[in-house]
Design goal:
CATH class of the domain at 81-328: Alpha Beta
Helix content: 40-55%
Function: Catalyzes the biosynthesis of agmatine from arginine.
Bound molecules: pyridoxal-5'-phosphate
CATH superfamily of the domain at 81-328: Alanine racemase
Shape: globular
Largest sheet: 10 strands, mixed
Cofactor: pyridoxal 5'-phosphate; Mg(2+)
Distance between the termini: 31 Å
Enzyme class: lyase
Pfam families: Arg_decarb_HB, Arg_decarbox_C, Orn_Arg_deC_N
Number of helices: 22
Domain Arginine decarboxylase helical bundle: 362-440
Radius of gyration: 30 Å
Structural class: alpha/beta
């Protein structure tokens, strides 16, 4: 537990069982319901599902939706707040149909709605958010078609809020609303002065990409007044960035927004809703700090700061409490899915065996290195280390000058790595470890080769150094002895994960277990349900992963069933998206094989087998078997 901090980042959903396997506790209100992840994986293996694969726990998704809504409802009641909570889920955070369906279903009793940030997302929201009491909030830049779609939604009695991000959208909206004879439901997004904290802090401030300045808000109000549409202005929106690491940013934003809200209301703008956007953070590294991958607050604290903040400021200004809308995405979905992959090999700098036997006439550097090894004992760690580093350098220089053979270089390197291993073996016995020697375990660390693509499955780890928890699925009752980094199977040296949860700060290596021959070693990349699930790209044409959706039983707390299997990309699928025609490609290869048959270079039977093999590969999974 100390190594991987499962309980710290797991938000109550993950634990380690006595058998050393990861346990999933998918229902926040039923701690007795436990799913053994290794059992899920074994069932997948038995049914022939290939890895890497995404495992989704739909109960976690439901739990998060319920927790958010209940926390707001309870806090509103406790605070005697006059408004209601009407949250929306931002589709962009995970657009998968099954995710959206589950969220809409779990949220229906709370009138929990959807947020769309583009035309395609609005088209999805129109079809899936059919509850007429929940909101559909429309953000993002809008063209005429986008606005027409929104007005279509209003015509079928949906609560569609068109949030104005840019002044020019307002003019388009007014013209179309008149043309189609629909009373719009308008939100104004305000550019906030308060800065968010964390990687997305540029979402606020004067140079923010979205929103209206205060002057533009006042002009918008004036324009709508002239058009007799003042009644349509119902919502004030702000969003100061995703993954807000510091609660102070939220407190400050609530303060600023409530001043804007109350002054507008006092001027006669009939605002009824305040939308606080997204930003509720996920504690990916379990440190409960203001690290980029963490946050220094809980859901309860976040909700209380919003509800009590608006209440206090509105009471002071003697204006009604607005209904509260929030657009939390990351916190709703991050926990419910994880990527499971198998370690398929090890790349080790000191893993090669090479004979270092003495030969007559060898270079003295090799002789010196060998003597260093012979004289090594507990009294001379540091001296041996210093001398070996120097001899290795000398060997390289001698090689560059052409006075050292390849064989001699291989011998020096082999002894050097053996010495480092020997020193590392004694380090734990030392009461004081000299600074230079502390680096040895990292120098000796392995790279575990895992069958997945960072670009597809953990894009933010590569793009913005996001820390995602990485934990072996089994053997958690054994001390992990090997320090590793993780490399993927893409042909790119960037295709690796080297940001892990460390004891104090982010670590470049993670302790993992020694691989055992004949035994699968599965590792999970956790908390991938927000953004990672859907942002991945087609680097190396690996494509989407196989997926299983796991659900717990009501009557058996230890059992589960796989509700759905979604097949990942086949080679044929990914090639087609890149404009290839797989059937034609098979024909092209067949033609060449036929030519070789005619020339007598390939036997007809072998030719048939070759083309069958090519066609089978077209249909198969893109990842390694
Ligand atoms: N709303 C808007 C306008 C956003 O831009 C975002 C994401 O940045 C969100 C909601 C979702 O934010 P989060 O995932 O941090 O909850």
């Amino acid at each position: 537990e100390n190594v991987y901090r499962v309980k710290r980042w797991g938000n109550g959903y993950f634990d380690i069982g006595d058998n050393g396997n990861i346990q999933v506790i998918p229902r926040y209100d039923q701690p007795g319901v436990k799913i053994d992840m290794r059992e899920v994986i074994d069932e997948m293996v038995d049914s022939g599902i290939e890895f890497p694969a995404v495992i989704r726990f739909h109960d976690i998704l439901r739990s998060q939706v319920e927790l958010l809504n209940k926390t707001f409802r309870d806090t509103i009641e406790e605070a005697q707040y006059q408004g209601k909570y009407l949250g929306v889920f931002p589709v962009k955070v995970n657009q998968m149909r099954e995710v959206i369906e589950e969220i809409v279903d779990a949220g229906s009793r709370f009138n929990y709605g959807l947020e769309a940030g583009s035309k395609p997302e609005l088209i999805a929201a129109l079809a899936y958010n059919t509850n007429q009491d929940s909101l559909t909030i429309l953000n993002g830049y809008k063209d005429e078609e986008y606005i027409r779609l929104a007005l279509l939604g209003l015509k079928i009695n949906r609560k569609i809020v068109i949030v104005i991000e840019k002044f020019s959208e307002l003019k388009k909206l007014i013209a179309l609303a008149k043309q189609l004879d629909v009373q719009p439901f308008i939100g104004l997004r305000v550019k906030m002065m308060v800065k968010g904290r964390g990687k997305w802090e540029s979402s606020s401030g004067e140079r923010a990409k979205f929103g209206l300045s205060i002057a533009e808000i006042l002009n918008a109000v004036k324009l709508l007044e002239q058009e007799h549409l003042t009644d349509a202005i119902k919502l004030l929106h702000f969003h100061i960035g995703s993954q807000l690491t510091d609660i102070r940013a939220i407190k400050e934003a609530v303060q600023e927004a409530s001043f804007v809200y109350s002054q507008l209301v006092k001027q006669g703008v009939p605002l009824e809703y305040i939308d606080v956007g997204g930003g509720l953070a996920v504690d990916y590294d379990g440190s409960q700090s203001t690290n980029d991958s963490s946050c220094n607050y809980s859901l309860a604290e976040y909700v209380a700061d919003i509800v009590y903040g608006f209440k206090q400021n509105c009471d002071l200004a003697s204006v009604p409490h607005p209904h509260i809308v929030s657009e939390s995405g990351r916190a709703m979905t991050a926990h419910h899915s994880c990527v499971v992959t198998k370690v398929i090999g090890e790349i080790h700098p000191s893993g090669t065996q090479f004979s270092t036997r003495k030969v007559t006439g060898e270079h003295f550097i090799v002789t010196n290195m060998r003597e260093l090894e012979q004289n090594f004992d507990e009294t001379n760690f540091q001296e041996t280390y210093n001398d070996s580093v120097q001899l290795k350098e000398q060997a390289l220089n001698a090689f560059k000058l052409g006075i050292f053979t390849l064989e001699e270089l291989a011998k020096v390197e082999t002894i050097y790595w053996r010495l480092l291993n020997a020193i590392a073996g004694h380090l734990e016995e030392l009461t004081f470890i000299p600074e230079e020697l502390k680096e040895i375990p990292e120098m000796l660390s392995s790279q575990y080769l895992a069958n997945f693509s960072v670009f597809q499955s953990a894009a933010d780890s590569w793009a913005i150094d996001q820390v995602l928890p990485i934990v072996p699925i089994s053997r958690l009752n054994e001390k992990p002895q090997k320090l590793c980094s993780l490399v993927d199977i893409t042909c790119d040296s960037d295709g690796k994960i080297d940001k892990f949860i460390g004891e104090e700060a982010v670590a470049s290596h993670i302790p993992l277990h020694q691989l055992r021959s004949g035994e699968d070693y599965f590792i999970g990349v956790f908390l991938t349900g927000a953004y990672q699930d859907v942002m991945g790209d087609m680097h190396n044409l690996f494509g989407r992963l196989n997926e299983v959706h796991v659900v717990s039983y009501d009557d058996d707390p230890k059992d589960f069933y796989v509700e759905e299997v979604v097949k990942g990309s086949s080679v044929e699928n990914v090639l087609s998206t890149m404009q290839y025609t797989p059937a034609m490609m098979a024909q092209m290869v067949k033609k060449e094989i036929d030519q070789q048959i005619q020339r007598g270079l390939i036997k007809p039977r072998e030719g048939v087998q070759l083309i069958d093999f090519y066609e089978d590969c077209l249909l198969s999974y893109t990842y390694l078997k």
